[in-house]
Predict the 3D structure of the following.
Amino acid sequence: MTDKRSKLRRIIMDTRTLPTLPSVINKLNSLSDNEKSSIQEMAKIVSSDQVLSARILRLANSPSYGFYRVSTISNAMILLGVNVVKSLALSSSIFAIMEKDSIGLWEHSLAVGTVANLIARKLGLPECEEIATAGLLHDIGKVIISIKCSEAEKDIIRLVHEKRIYTMEAERETIDTDHAEVGGWLSKSWFLPDKLSEPIAFHHDVAGSVNHRIKTAVVHIADVLICAGGFGNSGETFVPPVQKIAWDTLKLNEQILAELVDETEDKLVEVKNFCLEMMGD
Amino acid sequence: MQKIPLLHAKAEMTLARDVFRGNLPVGFPLCGKGTKLTDDLIARFESMDVKTIYVEGHPVWEEGERSVADLLHDLDGRFSKTLQNPLNALLYDTYKAHLTKLMEATSDRQAK
């Protein structure tokens, strides 16, 4: 690692100013790893955080999940499953960090998460919720760069427009690293599992993902689809190249792509309405 | 698929989502997706406090909404850097076909 990059890594990863995950998520993680813990115990932990509880109930009652009148956290956990609630808890914490920052990026991330879930279900992949969470978090590095290097961020935005290049290229030119790598560093410091940290760190370089290449490929394709449809604002002016390794890994073809584009556009109508509702709060 | 206020609903439009009383997804749906709207059905929704519905296609163009021609122009811009990549070219063609289908559906309706 170059001096500049390692210095930057120290600045970025300075834990005193790094956004932290609520302790409830760590407690939830350790409880769910223990086979003897019960849903009630976990629900009690979640219920101790009223903001988080409200968000989980709101998301569990949203039409996208299709359950009606979920009024207790333990019911939400039984109906949705512990992993889904963990994903929701993580996602809502990320929203709390992102909301202050950029609406456009928030919309983009929410759309990528939704479409990653759509792709995973369409292809019959396991762990669809984890894939959706990875999609939601894929650009978290951009949030950290914006928080920790606000001056450099202005240069990055300027370079993207002046030179007509991708954000990643502008980031490397300006801070000698990029949002995918920063996202990877952050997920390590948050002790996120590899199935989340790999798609975050390699969504622009699917070949670099060794253990969770399928999940990474889904997030990559979802990201490209959302950029292609022009939904939200990830900071990119141009659609990134579709990586052949992602296409081959998921065994995509012309017909599946056409169906995905139609279904994605339908899903985005719901995502847009959800974003408008959340912003209205 | 488009979410429209019930005020803009017209006979012959097709529901893309189930419709529930008072727009709350609770209980049995009043009407299932895939149903073709009639004037009677729209009047019944009104009496049951349904405010918005999801319909197939994009039948209502609201003020301030971008035209399909504008959307196609933006699409060209977004793909201008990567069209030489065969997979991006395929994705571009797929999106263009999707938007063109939307445009044809809109002009058919306007002609009617």
Summary: The first helix of chain A runs from residue 3 to 12. Residues 15-90 of chain A form one domain. The two ends of chain A are 44 Å apart (CA to CA).
